[in-house]
Write a structure and sequence with these properties.
The chain is an alpha/beta fold. It contains 18 helices and 13 strands.
């Protein structure tokens, strides 16, 4: 229960698992504050310009005063000429007064307020808008890096699919019934927390099948699980696990498994005492917005890659269903970060989207790591941004927002520098009155702020 939950009927028992500063709401507030207060690489440019700009302007203001005092006729003549068409220029003032006015105007117009606000204002508006649309940006630099991303890697389970697999097919061999096969498989899988294992156990529970006690449970990464159930060893997993358990797979049985995989289902063999007794087909439904989101990624010029622990056929079937460009199948949890590094070695700027504990290393390895949905604490900590609504479409919005924010920041810096440059020239020559210098300096700050507010339109039309 995150908050703002209304119980309209019945009794709701809620257990508090975290104290105030650890709640989801406080985490959201902390993430937004961190993003708004963080610096991004492009801001370093603005800071460097400011460091150089201020001493130069101080020197320039002193030179302005000295120049006016040394060449009063030249500057006085310029002011007198300009007074014919610029109403605020007063040629009646003494050359000394005009010299000090020019010096002060240079100091006023050179105030780097607008330049200093060019990046922070855009970051504040961008991170705030992101939070309103279910996107929490933990690190400000993610906005800048996301703009350069040209490849996006998506974990299959929980990102493209709902992450709630269900048993859809139970194929039996010999004299074994569907209930027998499901009972054996569930009795073993009951010891595992893997999503596919939970699907098998849930299917057995839905049919009110009483599970048997198992002993000697063993989980073999990338292959499956095995345990002793009753008088024999039961295995649930891949063909290589069946081979280890001495279960022979016929051509017909292998074909049945392939047919399930071509339907984008994960198919696992079930063996008992060295004999193949059945195949379970497990499907994880694709999220409703996944196909549209993938299409949007492509329109934005991003290469899409899906990572999955499933075999090539199952992975390819799901990829074709949603329009993914490439598939890396049979990827073990500890290999995901290696897949990210391979893409980076090819010159891609990579964003990784995932939700689980085994996604954390890949999220950290990517140029931009994005946790989707509730995720796990480890995944959230490793990510640069979080799409809290569990929608892939929100990641699309993050790309759009980052590109818009980068564009606005560049515009802000350009506006600030251009206005300063123009009014510095007019201030040095005495064509800018003191009040106009103040107005120009304030105006530059206001323009930068207003331009940053344009970001509020960046996600217009997105739901």
């Amino acid at each position: 229960v995150i908050g703002a939950t209304l119980n309209t009927n019945g009794v709701l028992k809620v257990k508090a698992t975290k104290i105030g500063n650890e709640t989801f709401l406080n985490q959201v507030i902390k993430m937004v504050e961190e993003a708004q207060g963080s610096k991004i690489p492009i801001q370093d440019f603005a800071d460097q310009v400011t460091k150089v700009f201020v001493p130069i302007v101080l020197l320039l203001s002193a030179l302005t005063l000295i120049s006016w005092l040394i060449f009063p006729e030249f500057f006085g003549g310029l002011v007198e000429w300009a007074s014919n068409f610029i109403p605020w220029v007063n040629p009646e003032m003494t050359s000394v007064s005009l010299a000090f006015y020019a010096m002060i105007a240079v100091l006023v117009i050179a105030c780097p307020c607008a330049l200093g606000l060019a990046t922070p204002t855009a970051l504040m508006v961008g991170s705030g808008l992101g939070a309103e649309n279910g996107i929490l940006i933990r690190k400000g630099e993610a906005i800048q890096r996301m703009k350069d991303v040209d490849a996006i890697v998506l974990d299959k389970t929980g990102t493209i699919t709902k992450g709630k697999p269900e048993v859809t097919d139970v194929i039996t061999f010999g004299e074994w019934s569907e209930t027998d096969v499901l009972k054996m498989a569930a009795s073993v899988e009951n010891n595992s927390e893997h999503p596919l294992a939970r699907a098998v156990v849930n299917a057995a529970n839905d049919q009110n099948i009483e599970l048997e006690k198992s002993t000697g449970f063993e989980s073999i990464t990338g292959k499956g699980v095995k345990a002793i159930v009753g008088d024999g060893a039961v295995g649930v997993g891949t063909g290589s696990l069946m081979e280890e358990l001495g279960a022979e797979i016929t051509t017909d049985q292998s074909t049945r498994k392939q047919q399930l995989e071509e339907q984008a289902k994960t198919a696992v063999y079930v063996s008992q005492a060295g004999n193949l007794v059945g195949i379970l087909g497990i499907a994880d439904e694709v999220k409703s917005d996944s196909k549209q989101a993938i299409s949007e990624f492509k329109k934005l010029g991003l290469k899409t890659i899906m990572l999955t622990g499933d075999n090539e056929k199952t992975g390819r079937a799901i990829a074709e269903k949603v329009g993914i460009d490439e598939v890396s199948a049979e990827v073990l949890p500890d290999q995901k970060s290696n897949e990210i590094k391979k893409l980076q070695e090819q010159g891609f700027v990579v964003a990784m989207v995932g939700d689980g504990i085994n996604d954390a290393p890949a999220l950290k390895s990517a140029d931009v790591g994005i946790a989707i949905g509730g995720g796990t604490d480890i995944a959230l900590e490793a990510a640069d941004a979080v799409a809290v609504r569990d929608r892939l479409g929100d990641v699309v919005n993050l790309v759009k927002l980052s590109r818009a924010a980068r564009r606005v920041i560049r515009e802000n810096i350009t506006i600030a520098l251009a206005l300063k440059a123009v009014f510095l020239v007019t201030s040095i020559t005495g064509l800018t009155g003191l009040w106009l210098a103040v107005l120009a300096d304030t105006g530059a700050t206001v323009l930068v702020t207003i331009n940053s507010l344009r970001l509020l339109m960046a996600l217009r039309g997105s739901k």
